[in-house]
Structures are given as C-alpha cells and as structure tokens.
Amino acid sequence: MAEGAGGPGGVDDEESPLNSTINTTPLVDVMLVMLIIFLITVPVVVATKKVNLPVETNKEMLTKPDNINITVDSDGKYFYNVYPKELAEIKELLYKAALKAHNTGKSQPEVHIMGDDQAYYGYVGDAVEAARLSGIAKVGFVTKPNR
C-alpha cells in the first residue's frame, strides 16, 4: 500500500529526475538593475560646467626689510630669517611682530615661507599654522621662477 505513494522509497522517485541546473533569473534581474543604475548615474558624475580657469603668473616682488622669512630645510629644521630657531620660538617671535605692528598702528609684516623641495610638507604646514595662530594676515610661499 505504501509503495504506490510518491514518497521516499516509492515508485515516483525513479521516474522524476533531480533538477541540477542553477536558476539564473534572479542573477539576471540584479545585473539589469545595476546596469540601469550605472547608466543613469555616470553622466551626472562626469558632466561638469565649463569655466575659464585663471592663468597663474609669478611676479617678482621686492622684499621689504619688515618681511619675515621662515625657511624649512630638508631635515625639518626651521630658520627665522637666517637664524636657526625652534618652532615654539618662531611662534613667539611672530606673535611679538604682530603685536608690535598692532600697537604702533603700522601694517603687519609679511611672512615668506621657503620650504625645501625635499622637506616633509607637514613641517611647512606647521610654519603656516604658526603664522596663522600669531595673527599674521599675509603669508606667502617663495618658489623658483619657472623659466
């Protein structure tokens, strides 16, 4: 009696083969959705507004005696004008220069930073930060002329 039923050990097991194929319909559905998303988003990311960018020109500037030169060499050593100093000393000297200009009503000195091309950029950034924290408004970088 149990032999006629289509359960384990029954007659129907031998007649129905196992389905060994992978159902790829969900995979195709996901791939089509991703394709549509990429087709919609790529033109938005790539498209930019056309603008005329300014052309940079280096002008030779005359140095004033009031200007402060900070040099950073390739070893990360600091120089205030031509004198070797620690960064804390440079911060103090810049603060005093800014305070002196404020108290006398004169314009602030400009700070010109000369960084060696082999210097770690963090050292140059520390010099810029020291000038900013001291209240100096004009900070510039000295570079070689491009000829």
- Sketch the topology as an H/E string, one letter per element: HHEEEHEHE
Cα-atom Rg, whole angstroms?
36 Å
Strand order of the largest sheet: 3-2-1-4-5
CATH C-level class of the largest domain: Alpha Beta
In the CATH scheme, what's the topology name of the largest domain?
Nucleotidyltransferase, domain 5
Helicity range of the residues?
25-40%
CATH architecture descriptor name of the largest domain: 2-Layer Sandwich
How many helical elements? 4
What count of structural domains? Answer: 2
pLDDT averaged over residues: 80
What share of residues are in beta strands? 5-15%
Class computed from helices, strands and strand pairing: alpha/beta
Largest sheet: 5 strands, mixed
The backbone outline, from C-alpha atoms, is elongated
Explain this structure.
The chain is of the alpha/beta class. 39% of the residues lie in helices and 13% in strands. The protein has helices at residues 12-15, 25-46, 87-104, 121-134; strands at 68-72, 78-80, 83-85, 111-115, 139-141. Helix 3 packs parallel to helix 4. The termini are far apart. The model has no long low-confidence stretch (mean pLDDT 80).
